[in-house]
């Protein structure tokens, strides 16, 4: 089967389509004929060799497709349309998924739309609700708001928590899109100082929850933007990993909870539980079209290098999809 | 009434006993004739002017004594023996306490013992269970283990969670005491590298929960000592407030939850809820003598400066009590 591997850690030109054997099933697993997969930041970090995420030589952490084989008991049958997180191996014609991590694809969604859901919506759900403990009518600050996770988080915060949603992005085009999804306060970080705007929009109090994809560059401004007893969730380091001079007294006296997270290194049990809760609580919103998968562009498997490059250019709004089979 | 105030922000010599009016009660409050109060780190930080904790000019955040007046409905009566957190004003002959923050003193405990309980046990309870989410049979690392909060945390972790308890302290005398209270692994931080000892004691995995009173000086060693998905609770900065370089990627890839907290600046509602849960779950352990108040030394109100100096010398094991009235 066609599969994408990394020749050696480095740039997008290190990605290569090779022929590999179809993987063998173990108890509790399903074999999926992959229709679509998608590009995630974690793939790029892995490609660069910074965090070796999973033992699979084939990249890709999510798929949509059809069940072609199963091993052991499962609520799924051969022929079912499913989507979900995989332990690597998503950039290929066939992939293995843990049965308890597969989600039935609603009839109204295409395979491309389905491949745009698991990683970003599960991450947004986990960070907003499990880690960020976002409650009804609280205020949330979402950085990189036009990204895959950002666009998912705006929709979840709108429909689940009716939160006040403050977003940052780097262009009017992105911010306009965020407003359509439900964002209330739009901040262009290239033209405005976001901490000042956040304090203006919250009567000087700051926000209850921050979804931080940026890290070091935004450290002090995030600290200024968060409310007393706020929850700050770090899910990306687009602005650098190393913070110079962190003042612990301010974190302590504001009683801040700071949580670093990546979905990929979490345990199988964690992902299964998250998938189950997400399926029950959120999939109905896709069925009735209140929440939607946001797709930016589509590439073929052969153009995987171009797809990575496109994500690295930071111009995408929503997900970058890879069509593996038509 | 005799009361302790701060002349101007600075050292222990800035403390002064002055005469003040007995405070006036508002709805939902009790007036307490104070028998004992105690010294907490938060008093020292306030005395130094680093964090102005409460609007009360009189220092002191906890008392034990007798109810002499009440305003509004309350489950307490005039003459009841109570202990609890106050919004400042504890270092005085009379103090106001919110009725929903008062705890009935078990008959078996003296006023001095009672004054050694609220701040450190509520802090230990909050940090271990509410913030640290310590579960049965997990592993916890408790720094400054012979301190007031440390000795409370050891006992709670032992009796409530049956946790594996790893402690650090600076002398054999302190460590021996910690072992008697229930600590399993003793580390003298002056002679051993605590992160190496922690990894040895946990098969290289690290601990689930850290209670960190030290801050900057221990930053990298704590980061090395914590397990994947660990909860790290910062409740003191004895080793400095400023960390030179923080690597966010390691916090993110280990999925660490880092929470800064101080009990004093928390809201009245938070303290009332914490007090209620603590009273129901933990006071029975004092009644049957499984958990005990740990008292180091006692001073008179007039010697309050000496009491602060004693805490600053870091030689105490457990609480420093102030006898306000015999």
From TrEMBL, chains A, B:
UniProt EC number: 2.3.1.41
Organism expressing this protein natively: Tissierella creatinophila DSM 6911
Enzyme class, first EC level, given as a word: transferase
Gene transcribed to yield this protein: ppsC
Domain Enoyl reductase (ER), first and last residues per copy: 10-322
Pfam family, one: ADH_zinc_N
UniProt KW keywords: Acyltransferase, NADP, Oxidoreductase, Transferase
Single GO term (MF): oxidoreductase activity, acting on NAD(P)H
NCBIfam families: quinone_pig3
Signal sequence, start to end: none
Name of the featured protein: Phthiocerol synthesis polyketide synthase type I PpsC
